UniProtKB/TrEMBL annotation:
Region (Disordered): 102-146
Signal peptide: none
MADF domain location: 8-106
Name of the protein this chain belongs to: MADF domain-containing protein
């Protein structure tokens, strides 16, 4: 698989937002997604006549994984307080081609299954000392600093 082929393949992938844009209404349309996979499969068959839809999905996953790893390295280098010239620069030649994926891999907001209702029995640490814990949890107040 040469560079020109992969560039074309990524452009086709980008032109099918139903395959990568989670907020796109067609993202959940199986018929539309199958048509997008078919376009990518036709292109892939130019270099691999035995290619299947599974091969297309695997290729997409490989490209996205590599892209995420590079993004993670960039973020890690910026968090470390590195100077502007020390920030990691992605090594993948196709990294800029996948920039359309930039905001697609943001994690969902976390959810909890713990009931957070306030029934008035809990006391805050500022009211009664440093180790006040809810009686519902079976723990008691300890005033070790008083």
């Amino acid at each position: 698989m040469n560079r020109e082929f992969l560039e074309d393949w990524i452009r086709i992938y980008e032109s099918e937002p139903c395959l990568w844009e989670v907020k796109c209404k067609e993202y959940h349309d199986r018929v539309r997604k199958d048509a997008g996979y078919a376009r990518l499969l036709a292109k892939l068959k130019e270099v691999d006549t035995n290619a299947t839809k599974d091969a297309v999905i695997k290729k997409i996953n490989n490209l996205r994984s590599a892209y995420r790893k590079e993004i993670k390295k960039v973020k890690a280098s910026t968090k470390s307080g590195a100077a502007g010239d020390e920030i990691y620069k992605p090594k993948l030649w196709y990294f800029p081609l996948l920039s359309f994926l930039g905001d697609q891999d943001t994690p969902r907001a976390s959810r909890t299954n713990v009931d957070s209702s306030d029934d008035g029995d809990d006391k805050s640490a500022t009211e009664d000392g440093p180790h006040v814990v809810s009686p519902q949890m079976g723990l008691v107040k300890t005033n070790t600093f008083m």
